[in-house]
Design a protein that fits this description.
Layout: H1 5-26, H2 33-39, H3 54-77, H4 82-93, H5 96-100, H6 107-111, H7 120-143, H8 149-168, H9 173-190
Helix pairs in contact: 1-2, 1-3, 3-7, 4-7, 7-8, 8-9
């Protein structure tokens, strides 16, 4: 049976969605092609119709994760003044929901520890995605009138990623909630964001 180009594209997108979730949740080393294809409702034999190798899948999945992260950021920014959009992003990023749902979370805290074990193409894909996300945050900071927005964006994202990684490493809800809350409040004060109420957040 011949499939249309649209069908093939939809199938590839389904595989990438499952691969991205598996990589976030278990790390790239534990990803099994057969399991991803089964999760997507496909046979293992169909894998090579979409990807040249597991490494090719990994690179495409990393690109997919950062595309999702940027799209979610854009959704939070839409229809809001830059400062309120940035506050909404901080609320989401440093929330219990983001901490707990690793399979749909930002790839920065989910994958950072795995990078030294990855091949050059995967590392380059991660660096590409991180640069794009940082640039978008820098652009929002520039719109708020912040000085040196590029440097500030690196600092802001680094603090948020570090807080999420640390919160995920602690089982007791009291301490990890304190970490997320303290980082969230400190960032808002530092960035002079007047919006301090906690917004409703949902995973992408």
């Amino acid at each position: 049976m011949r499939y249309t180009a649209e069908h093939k594209q939809q199938t590839r997108a389904r595989v990438l969605k499952e691969a991205a979730a598996a990589i976030r949740l278990n790390g790239p080393d534990r990803v099994a092609v057969a399991a991803i294809m089964a999760q997507a409702g496909l046979t293992h034999g169909g894998f090579y119709a979409h990807f040249a190798s597991k490494d090719d899948l990994l690179v495409a999945a990393i690109d997919q994760m950062f595309s999702e992260a940027l799209a979610y950021l854009e959704g939070l920014l839409a229809g809001k003044p830059p400062a309120d959009g940035l506050a909404a992003y901080i609320d989401f990023y440093l929330s219990a929901l983001h901490r707990d749902h690793r399979d749909a979370s930002c790839p920065l805290p989910a994958m950072a520890a795995d990078l030294p074990r990855l091949g050059a193409p995967a590392r380059e894909a991660f660096e590409r995605g991180a640069a794009a996300l940082t640039s978008r945050v820098a652009a929002v900071l520039a719109e708020t009138g912040a000085e040196a927005p590029g440097t500030l964006a690196v600092s802001v994202l680094s603090e948020m990623v570090g807080a999420v990684v640390l919160a995920r490493s602690i089982a007791d809800a009291g301490p990890w909630a304190t970490i997320l809350g303290a980082s969230r409040d400190a960032l808002k004060r530092r960035l002079q964001l007047t919006r301090t109420d906690s917004i409703h957040v949902a995973m992408p």
